[in-house]
Amino acid sequence: MKKSVFILCALLAFLVFGCPGTSDAIKDAVNQSSLKVGETSLVFTEAGGSQLVAVSGDADWFAVSDQSWCSVSPNSGSGNAAITVVVQQNNAVVQRSAKITVSAADNSLSREIVITQAAGQSTGPVTDSYGNSIDASPVTLDFQTGGGSKTIQITANVTWQIVSDQSWCSVSVGSGSGNATVNVSAAANSGDADRIAILTVSNTEYELNQYVTVTQQGSGIVSVAVTGVTLSQTTASLTTSAMMTLTATVLPANASNKTVTWSSSNPSVATVDNGVVTAVGVGTATIIVTTQNGSKTAACSVTVTGVALTGVTLNKTTLSLLKAGATETLIANVLPATATNKTVTWSSSNASVATVNAGGTVTATGVGTATITATTQEGSKTATCSVTVAGVAQVRFYNSFSNTYQTDRTMRVRNSSGTEVYAQWSIVNGGTSAYYEVPAGVYTILDVYWSYTTGSGWDTYTSYTFVAGNKYTWRRVINGSSVSNTVVIDGTF
């Protein structure tokens, strides 16, 4: 007999201390705390009340309820104890339920107690012994998931207040006297479970209380949490300007929210837009996908090769355009010429003066100055061109000798630098409505040059400023051997 006992003890010692795997299992079974509850379900009448539940075991524990109308006391303890479950009166005309969870302090064990309470009963008008009365009809309102608005009719011979116990359910008026119609609104229910609100119509002076139960359906869809995300590739090699598409797979496959966002650790090397990766510069970048639910991430390391870009220049650093509609094309030169990625984008600092398209063509849109900028996709290198749009004034020539507005002449002026700029002018229209378009600025006006006569004897006129957008008449008056020139603003043509 002693020999049998010795063998049994030796076997047990081997299993606990000497057998890999088996010893851990036995240790867990031996060391695990125990926790039990005497009842797993409780039923209450509409009036509510309290009931005792025994908790037994050797663990420290805590207890919580998921509904405010159901409470538990004490809510924590150690080892064996009795807890009291208290349920308030149910004023709703529908059955309701709650769940109490008793858990070990180290969260190794948990037990649940399901609470069910019977529906309240509709009592009709509430009247005291003095004839004071309040009634609400109907006493139940049902809303679909999307919410909406419905009405209740209050019949009373006293003042009253009406309040909702839930923020998603609201009323159009909070108080009144006598009979009234009250709008009841329910917001959309984004949750998967049905929900209940209680409207209390009351008069505190006479202790009158009537209740309206508002129920709203949930979506009925059980939310499945995201546990992870993977990418179709974890590494990739690209040359500059090349593109590739990464595909994100959210786990599990039936996750409710599969929304993800994309980002790059180094946008100067590689950018990403909805999974489409574009290589823009030599170097390395990490493309990261992040789930909206749970913030789970996955990454792909991207290496971009090629001839690195060092800079960019423009064929012009300044540009003068005459008027709105005038155009000129700028040329961007990427450095070095052998750079793999030569993509540039164009922008204007002042689109009301000049715009620029994707090909570098600048179009004047108004008088003023603007800066046109070319920016490389790789490295964001820039080059600029300052654009000035002078604008034009309209000038016509009147000859008193012939009493005509002449168009067979070439108007010659010197600008503020002393340079003749008549070649920049052009005749617009014809006959008496003919005029010249003159770049805005300050000029010294000279005599009119007769197109069929060699020039001689120019009469000098003092400086005059032509303002863009204005119209002017240049009057040449001949009186005998004397000639005079005047310039006046004239909006008649």
N→C terminal distance: 134 Å
Shape: elongated
Number of strands: 48
The pLDDT mean sits at 82
Percentage of residues in DSSP E strands: over 45%
Q: Which structural class should the secondary elements be placed in?
A: mainly beta
Task: Describe this protein's structure.
There is one protein chain. The strands form 13 sheets. Strands 38, 39, 42, 43, 47 and 48 form a six-stranded mixed β-sheet that branches. This protein has a five-stranded mixed β-sheet with strand order 2-9-8-4-6, with no helix packed on it. Residues 1-31, 422-430 and 447-459 have low confidence and may be disordered. The chain contains two helices and 48 strands. Strand 38 and strand 39 form a beta hairpin. With 493 residues, the protein is mainly β.
Question: What's this model, at a glance?
Answer:
The protein is mainly beta.
Properties at a glance:
single chain; 493 residues; six-stranded mixed β-sheet; five-stranded mixed β-sheet; 2 helices; elongated
Furnish the topology, listing elements before pairings.
Layout: H1 2-18, H2 22-31, E1 35-37, E2 41-44, E3 49-57, E4 60-65, E5 70-73, E6 76-78, E7 81-87, E8 96-104, E9 110-117, E10 126-127, E11 133-137, E12 140-143, E13 148-156, E14 159-164, E15 169-171, E16 175-177, E17 180-186, E18 195-203, E19 208-216, E20 228-231, E21 235-239, E22 243-245, E23 248-251, E24 260-264, E25 270-273, E26 276-279, E27 283-291, E28 297-305, E29 311-314, E30 318-321, E31 327-329, E32 332-335, E33 344-348, E34 354-356, E35 361-364, E36 368-376, E37 382-389, E38 392-399, E39 404-405, E40 409-410, E41 413-415, E42 427-428, E43 435-439, E44 441-446, E45 449-450, E46 460-466, E47 471-479, E48 482-489
Parallel strand pairs: 2-9, 12-19, 21-28, 30-37, 38-47
Antiparallel strand pairs: 1-3, 3-7, 4-6, 4-8, 5-7, 8-9, 10-11, 11-13, 13-17, 14-16, 14-18, 15-17, 18-19, 20-23, 22-26, 24-27, 25-26, 27-28, 29-32, 31-35, 33-36, 34-35, 36-37, 38-39, 38-43, 40-45, 41-44, 42-43, 44-46, 47-48
Helix pairs in contact: 1-2
